[in-house]
Structures are given as C-alpha cells and as structure tokens.
C-alpha cells in the first residue's frame, strides 16, 4: 500500500527561500560581429560620431559597387540607408515639371518611382528565396538597392545632356549609351554579389529578374525628357 506524501506550510516556505542557481543557455549576439570585451557601446557615443560612422559605411559600399570584387561587405554589414538615398535621389531627378502634364512628357511621379523601386526589389528578393538562395531578405534588398548606383550616375549624365542641349537623335544615342553602360554595370555588380548565394543549377532563373528589375529602371531614365 502506497503512502501519500503531503507538504506542510513549513516545507513550502523552506523551498521558496532556497536560491536555485540554474545556468542560462544561449548567447544574445549579432551574427557576423566579432565579440570583444573592450568594445564600447554605441549608445554612449555622440550623434555626430554615429552619423559619421554610418556615412563612412555607406561610402564604402558605394565603392564596392563601382569596383565589384570578391567581397561580402554588402552581405555581412547590410543596411538600407544607401538604397533609400538612391531611391529618393532617383525619384526627385525623374519627377517631371509641375507646370507640364506628366502624361504628356512621360515623366513618372515621385510615388511611382518609389513604388517601382521597392516593389521590384521585393519581387526579386522573393524569387531569390523561392529558388533556395542562402541569403536573408534584407541582405538581398541591400545589394539590389546599392547596385542601382551606376544607373543613378547615368541619370545625372542624361540630365546634364538635356540641360545643355535640345532633344535630337544624336543626344538620344549618347544618352542611350550611358544608360546602357549603367544598366550593364548594375546587373554585373548585383550578380557578382548575389551569384554565390544561388544554387548552381538555378542561377539563370535568379539572374533574369535582376535583368528585368534594372531594365525597368533604365527605361524610366531613357524615357525621361524634361
């Protein structure tokens, strides 16, 4: 016959007064960042230093886009500051004159460029994930956004050409060459950074949306006449 155990109030008070030392498992760290005991917290640094550090990081990523090589800076230290700056810059440059009807001159509005830019990056990133790419969502958006830089430079050249010259066949061919060069450089840079993250047998399926994304942006630039 089994004996029924019962706890008295004294036993309960004794158990609650005891300190149970249970070690916590896990490590709350940011992946890809080395640990350092001497590393200072960025919460205590001046705002000026924070802005300077972020701008320096954005500038380095711009350099890697203009000079693509075997580097994982855009993937390990991803951010969305560069893509946001390029998106706002492109939307402002492509926006048509308020005095002219945008339906007549073919110039997109700010919101249209903004939606095309981020929706295109989202669709390309989603395609990359569905194909089994070993890359995070924000890493892909970061690379796609930064690689628009060559097209932004071609947009600046096209605007300068239109300011100092009237529209003609020769100027259109010149603009087309610069936009084509920017399109090719953007596509090449993005594939250089994202190519290793794609399965070997599905790289063609991953490159096609990249090609289409930069082609649409190139079309917005070459069709802009104001």
Structure description:
By secondary structure, the protein is mainly α. It has a domain at 74-222. Helix content is 64%, strand content 0%. The chain contains 10 helices and no strands. It has helices at residues 9-17, 47-66, 73-76, 81-94, 102-105, 110-130, 137-146, 149-164, 169-194, 203-222. Helix 4 (81-94) packs across helix 6 and helix 8 (149-164) packs antiparallel against helix 9. The longest helix is centred in the last third of the chain and has 26 residues, at 169-194. The termini are far apart.
Largest sheet, in brief, is: none
| Total helical elements | 10
Number of strands: 0
Order of helices and strands: HHHHHHHHHH
In a few lines, what is going on in this structure?
This protein is mainly alpha-helical and 226 residues long. Helices cover 64% and strands 0% of the residues.
Task: Please outline the helices and strands.
Layout: H1 9-17, H2 47-66, H3 73-76, H4 81-94, H5 102-105, H6 110-130, H7 137-146, H8 149-164, H9 169-194, H10 203-222
Helix pairs in contact: 4-6, 4-7, 4-8, 6-7, 6-10, 8-9, 8-10, 9-10
Keywords for this entry:
single chain, 64% helix, mainly alpha, 10 helices, 226 residues
């Amino acid at each position: 016959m089994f004996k029924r155990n019962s706890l008295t109030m004294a036993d309960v008070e004794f158990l609650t007064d005891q300190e149970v030392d249970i070690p916590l498992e896990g490590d709350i760290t940011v992946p890809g960042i080395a640990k350092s005991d001497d590393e200072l917290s960025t919460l205590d640094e001046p705002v000026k230093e924070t802005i300077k550090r972020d701008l320096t990081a954005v500038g380095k990523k711009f350099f890697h886009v203009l000079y693509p090589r075997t580097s994982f800076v855009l993937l390990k230290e991803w951010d969305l500051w560069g893509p946001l700056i390029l998106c706002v810059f492109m939307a402002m440059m492509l926006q048509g004159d308020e005095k002219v009807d945008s339906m007549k001159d073919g110039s997109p509005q700010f919101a249209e460029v903004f939606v095309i830019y981020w929706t295109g990056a989202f669709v390309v990133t989603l395609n990359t994930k569905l194909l089994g790419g070993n890359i995070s969502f924000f890493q892909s958006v970061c690379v796609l956004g930064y690689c628009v830089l060559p097209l932004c430079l071609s947009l600046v050249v096209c605007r300068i050409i239109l300011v100092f010259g009237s529209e003609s066949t020769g100027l259109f061919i010149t603009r087309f060459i610069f936009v084509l060069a920017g399109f090719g450089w953007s596509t090449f840079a993005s594939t250089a950074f994202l190519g290793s993250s794609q399965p070997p047998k599905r790289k063609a399926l991953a490159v096609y949306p990249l090609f289409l994304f930069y082609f649409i942006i190139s079309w917005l630039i070459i069709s802009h006449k104001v």
